[in-house]
Amino acid sequence: MKKKIKITFNAPVVLTFALISLLALILSYITFGVSNKLLFMTYRSSLLSPLTYLRLFTHVLGHSGWAHFIGNMAYILLLGPMLEEKYGSSEIIWIIVSTAVVTGLVNCLLFPLTALCGASGVVFAFILLTSFTSFKQGELPVSVILVAMIYIGQQVYDGLFVQDNISNLSHIIGGLVGAVIGYRLNKKK
Fold first, then answer.
1. Residue 75: which CATH number?
2. Is residue 41 within 8 Å of residue 116, measured between CB atoms?
């Protein structure tokens, strides 16, 4: 007798994040980018505008195009469900929100003329957090050191020597947020 395959919504936070990001991208295409500028990019703007504060959270949902979206979602959908299973949905929400706010604030303070959009900071938070999954108290796994060196080192190099439209600092900050939270979560256990 054959077993029926059951489709499950295995990582509700990660899957909802990906779905909302997809809807934000579609909305951006429909509005010719206006929705991204209004809701899904963070940049220095009036502190009297409520949208300034909203964008500190929502800029991680926006993407500049399909390639940007697919690049980020491939990592998020690969790493996110495993992390959500290990740490729980509320911790994944905390990681996404923390990464969004920290990267958004740093961008507004240090780069007032640059808009920031996309989930790359969340991707790097997930990458560094993943390297902490086998962390034990009193130990620092070589894998954590190597992941940090490779990913953060690449971002430092790109930030110094590559001229592109990518916010390497938000990648580094996202990685640091993931590392700090990963250390804290695993230290508790």
1. 1.20.1540.10
2. yes
